[in-house]
Amino acid sequence: MEKLYSLVIHPPEAILILVKSMKEQLATEVGWFNSKNSVGHITICEFKATDAAIEKIKIQINRLCETLSPVEILLNEFGAFPNGAFFIAPDKDSKTNLKHIMKRFNQSLRIPNMLKSDNPHLSIARRLTPENLIKANHLFTTIDLNFVCDSVVLRQFDENIKQFFVTDTFEFKDNPQPRLIQGTLF
């Protein structure tokens, strides 16, 4: 039987606690909203896999992490998408670095029907009405967070509580890929 998984970047606990408190503040202002109870994260991809397939996917993820280097991430503004998503956005350099990481996974993982993300952001809320989006923009005006992105997290969806939970963390090992060097024979 297939289960739903997501591969994400989790900021450190202090940022996760702040995001949770922001979600609570927003809920006090606008009521319940989509992703209110979701732990803060930056999505790389979502996919379904069997127990046997997920073990092979974990090996692929681990191999990719061997070659990735930790990068400093600055989250310094709020943004919104037309679908009502309200989020914390990375600065230009951080967005470039995150996109590079996301692209590496999304191009390398060979998973059928994988939903790929290519726009890094840390969601506060999803599917807000236009009125509630205005309230969110008035409630939250400035932000300045930073962290070192040095791992990715694999999460599995729990059908009972309708939330993802962490199953594995894969740390970046900063080992350059071995390169084949073409030699000259004399």
Question: Any overview of this molecule?
Answer:
The protein has helices at about 15-30, 50-65, 90-110, 130-140, and strands spanning about 5-10, 40-50, 70-80, 85-90, 115, 120-125, 145-150, 150-160, 165-170. The chain has about 190 residues and is of the alpha+beta class. The chain has a single domain (about 5-170), classed as Cyclic phosphodiesterase (Cyclic Phosphodiesterase, Chain: A, Alpha-Beta Complex), CATH 3.90.1140. The strands form 2 sheets. A 5-stranded antiparallel sheet has the order 5-2-1-8-9, with helices on one face. The longest helix has 18 residues, at about 15-30. The radius of gyration is 18 Å and the shape is globular. The protein starts with a strand and ends in a 15-residue tail after the last strand. About 25% of the residues are buried. The mean pLDDT is about 90. Keywords: Ligase. InterPro entries: Cyclic_Pdiesterase. GO terms for molecular function: ligase activity.
**CATH-derived architecture:** Alpha-Beta Complex
Number of helices: 4
Sequence of strands across the biggest β-sheet: 5-2-1-8-9
Return the string of H and E elements.
EHEHEEHEEHEEE
Helix content: 25-40%
**CATH third-level topology:** Cyclic Phosphodiesterase, Chain: A
Distance between the termini: 58 Å
Rg over CA atoms, rounded to whole Å, is 18 Å
The CATH homology group name: Cyclic phosphodiesterase
